[in-house]
Amino acid sequence: MRLDAWLPKRRAWLLCLLLPLTAGAGTPADYAYRYALDTAGSSAAWRVELTPAVYAASTPAANLRDLVVVNAQGQEVPFAPLPAAPPRSHPFALRATLLPLPSGSAANGTGVRVQRNSNGDIVIEQPGMPSASTRPGQWLVDAHRQVSLDRIEIDPAALPVDARFHLSVQASNDLQAWSERSLDIEIVSVKRGGDAVEQHTIALNGGGPARYYRLSLRQNDVAPWDSAQTPQVELRGSYADPLAERMAARHWLTLPAAPAAPVTAGGADYDYALPAALPVEAVRVVLGGDNTVARFSLLDHDEGNGRMLATITAVRIGTGTGEDPATLFATTRVQHLRLHTDTPLSQPPSLQVAWQPDVFVFLAEGSGPYSLLAGSHAARRGDYPLEAALERLRPRDAGANWQPPLATLGAVSDAGGAAALLAPKAPFDWTRLLLWLVLIGGALAVAGMAWSLLRQSRREDDTH
Description:
It contains five helices and 25 strands.
């Protein structure tokens, strides 16, 4: 055969071999279950929030990569975890007072100490307070939480006629390290009859959120307040509370305990089962008896690995109207939990479990209806850089917290069925059979040759 005729056939044969290795995520039959997606309305992208049923359908070893979305033609569409949005910004306004700082607070050896109490409030300690009022050069203001201030407005009533001075502003969260937020802003209050010129707003140049702000007078300037006065100011800006947002997004489950299992080393174990391997991030132990206290070790009990997640002290006084704070730990996908305690309990405790569902987003490529396919032994979702697409889709008047509309999960049905979760049966190894046939054939050939040589040797012996 000519070489130029043989090479194309060879190349086609190699492509046929490599095709399964370079194939995509697979067909709908490669996934176990199909969930209908309700996409009421019109949008180029939708987000999907996973439910316990989807977690149960997904193979734990796949780490949620055996989830895809397909259109009405059964074609996979771009689908990926929704990028985390920044915490929501809330407007902030507070009327506060300026606390004068004695001149010795600038570390000049007069013993003045500025610190915080247990609530974070400012405490100024000055041994031997002077009897006469002095003219301070700095003032502190407490916002009572970490905020990003846009401006500080001095109460006009605190500014007498013909006041003119310059203030700079620094910010801190610990009253130790300070960062500049505004430099030499002129404060003016001039009135002549019915005419007036007033500038009592200090604009700040951003920076990270801070709780404490310090106003400093420019050298050789004089403010109209002495150390006995506390002028009023208005703080305006914004704040974010990511912890509160995360707490609000948590889903809580209350789990009863299985019968206590005695431990040979002492104490008792209580086991709890979630509906699926969920991303758990907080728990709360609820004791059954009145006036009870106990300490527990929370363990990841999937496959009996016993990995420690947290140590919890639970208290119940009286009828138990109050509840213990939630115990937080690193998000762990787990289905079986165990509480171990050395404290004897009259009743098994219940366990409140907090979990936060994963959220995905898909592009509405092709025509609907769309479906979520879940659970596969071998098929895996491809990687899609959806961040760029979402930036393109974000409305111009939308903020950083914009998200696509929610597509709700509907009824579930079989796609490939439970068989898609099983490893495929290994094909029959014909090479092993062929090897045995060759070995047996070779052995028979050797035996035949030996028999032939033996018969020939006998005939020669008979002729002699």
